[in-house]
Amino acid sequence: MELPAAITLHRFEDRQQCAEALADHIAGRLRQDLQLNGQAGLILSGGSTPVPMFKALSQQKLDWENVLVSLADDRWLPPEHADSNQGKVEQHLLRNEATKARWIPLWNPASQEDEALGRCREQLQQLPAQLSVVVLGMGNDGHTASLFPCSKELPRVWDSRQDCEWVQPTSAPWQRMTLTPQRLLASNERILHLTGADKLDTLSQALRNNQREEMPIRHFFSAGLRIFWAP
Ligand SMILES: O=C1O[C@H](COP(=O)(O)O)[C@@H](O)[C@H](O)[C@H]1O
C-alpha cells in the first residue's frame, strides 16, 4: 500500500502489542502537553477496537487530574447499555491510575433533542481549544467518529462550526452524537487505531478514493494521521 507523506503506518504482530505501544505513545504526548500547558485534552473512540488500549492506558502514571478526556462520538444511549461508548471508557479506562482523569461524557439524560445537544456542547467547552491527541476508529464503510457516509446530516456536519452534531446513520443502529471535523482537527495529533485485515483493505480503498462523502476517513488524511494496526 502506497502512503502519502502525511500518513505514518505502525504495524504490529498482535493486538495486545499494538494496544500497549499505542497507550505508551498517547501517554508520551499527554506528558509533553502537561509539561508545556499544565493540561492536556484526549479524545477517544468507541466500538470494540480500543478496549485493550484503554486497559493499557489506565496503567500509565501521569498527572491524570489535568487530563480532560472525551469521545469522538457516542451512541445516544445511557452508559449502562452494552453499545454505549461511554460505558466502555468508564469500564476499561477510568480506573487504576486514570481514575482521576477529568471525564467529559457526550451523553446526557435530557429528553428533548435540542436540550441534549445544547448540554453536550456546553460540556465540551471544558476541553482545551487545541486537543493533544485524537484517537479515531474506522468502520468498513469508511466512517470515522460518527461521520457516516449514509447519513443525511453529513453535508451539514462537514460545514459545522460547532463542537458536536447529531447524526442518524441508516446502516448502523442508534442515533449518534459526533464531534465535528473542525473540532477533531483542532488537535496536535490524530491517530487511527485499526485491527484486522478487513480494516487495512478499507484503508487502502479510502486511499484510492478521493471523495470524503463516500469515505469520511479521507478527510483526516491530509492534516496528518498516525495509524496503529495489528492483524
Ligand atoms: O460505531 C462506531 O464504530 C467505529 C469503529 O468501531 P469498531 O467496533 O470497528 O472498532 C468507532 O470508531 C466509533 O467510535 C463507533 O461509535
UniProtKB/TrEMBL annotation:
Enzymatic class: hydrolase
Full protein name: 6-phosphogluconolactonase
Family: Belongs to the glucosamine/galactosamine-6-phosphate isomerase family. 6-phosphogluconolactonase subfamily.
Reported function: Hydrolysis of 6-phosphogluconolactone to 6-phosphogluconate.
Record EC number: 3.1.1.31
GO MF annotation terms: 6-phosphogluconolactonase activity
Organism of derivation: Parathalassolituus penaei
Reaction it catalyzes: 6-phospho-D-glucono-1,5-lactone + H2O = 6-phospho-D-gluconate + H(+)
GO annotation (BP), single: pentose-phosphate shunt
Gene: pgl
Top-level division of the source organism's lineage: Bacteria
This protein's UniProt keywords: Hydrolase
Listed pathway(s): Carbohydrate degradation; pentose phosphate pathway; D-ribulose 5-phosphate from D-glucose 6-phosphate (oxidative stage): step 2/3
Glucosamine/galactosamine-6-phosphate isomerase domain location: 13-226
Keyword Hydrolase among record annotations: yes
